[in-house]
Design brief:
Elements lengths: L1 E8 L5 H10 L4 E4 L4 E4 L5 E5 L20 E8 L8 H15 L4 E5 L3 E7 L2 E4 L2
Antiparallel strand pairs: 1-5, 1-6, 2-3, 3-4, 4-5, 6-7, 7-8
Helix pairs in contact: 1-2
């Protein structure tokens, strides 16, 4: 079983800033060429940017967000996590790290249907 999640962010979140955030979140491996980034976490969570010229927000629950999407990322949780690690904890650390390193507005959603984390002018939020 795998879960697909997506990060949509404004132009404040660059690949360089995202690399810093992924390091802070505890990624085991990060590969970047300055234009794109891939990361792997011990829990099995994988993270990668995807090229897109479409600036529309795809998430159905926008939580009031109206920013133009400049960076779109694919997050995959695949199979059971090794003992002592949690991909959902990694996801939370990613959201918190991005919020710490920059003022980017962003959404993290499950299959574009349910928004789990979002950052707006009032800070970082988590759905209940």
């Amino acid at each position: 079983m795998s879960l697909d999640l997506y990060l949509e962010a404004d132009d404040v979140l660059t690949v360089a800033v995202l690399e810093r955030a992924l390091e802070m979140a505890g990624a085991d491996e990060i590969n970047t060429d300055g234009q794109a980034i891939e990361a792997l976490f011990e829990s099995g969570l994988t993270f990668s940017t995807s090229a897109s010229n479409d600036q529309a927000i795809y998430a159905e629950e926008t939580k009031g967000a109206t920013f133009l999407v400049a960076l779109r990322c694919y997050i995959r949780i695949k199979g059971p996590a090794p003992e002592g690690s949690s991909p959902l904890d990694d996801l939370e650390r990613i959201a918190r790290s991005i919020a710490e390193v920059c003022l980017s507005h962003f959404l993290i959603s499950f299959q574009f249907e349910q928004t789990l984390y979002w950052r707006d002018e009032n800070g970082l939020h988590c759905s209940e």
